[in-house]
Specification:
The structure is a single chain. By secondary structure, the chain is an alpha/beta fold. 47% of the residues lie in helices and 18% in strands. It has a single domain, classed as Rossmann fold. The protein is built from five helices and six strands. The protein is globular, with a radius of gyration of 15 Å.
Length: 137
Amino acid sequence: MKLIIGGVAQGKLEVAKRCVKRTNSELDTQNISKTVVIVDENYNSIEELYMATIINHFHLIVKRLLQEKQEPEWILEEIIAKNPNVCIVSTEIGYGIVPMDSFEREYRERTGRICCKIATKADEVYRVLCGIEARIK
C-alpha cells in the first residue's frame, strides 16, 4: 500500500499515477498487466474501493462516510484486507484555523488519525509539493 499526501492542487494524483506506472512496469516484467482504476468520493458502492488501483480524495471519502453515519475506520480495515496494493491519495486538512462546526472538527480529527494509521501500515509514503514527491517512508 502507498499513501500520498499534500496540499490542495499540488499534483498528488499525477504522482500516484507515476507510482502505479512504476509498479505496473515491475509487473510487466513478470508478464502480469494491471488496469489502473481510479476511484474517488463519487463511488457508487464500497466494493469499488476494494478494487481500485488508486483511491483519490480519500479525505472526502472519510467525510462522506461520516455524513452517512458509517465508520471510516472499519472501511479502512476492509480496504487494507481486500486491496493491500492500493495507492491512497489524501489532501492534508489539519492545518489552519480549527473549525467552529463540531462535524468539521470531528472530520478533520478522524481523517488525520486514519491517515496516520494508513502511513503506519503503508510500504511507501510520499508528500507532494508543487508536483514533486518526497518519499518520507
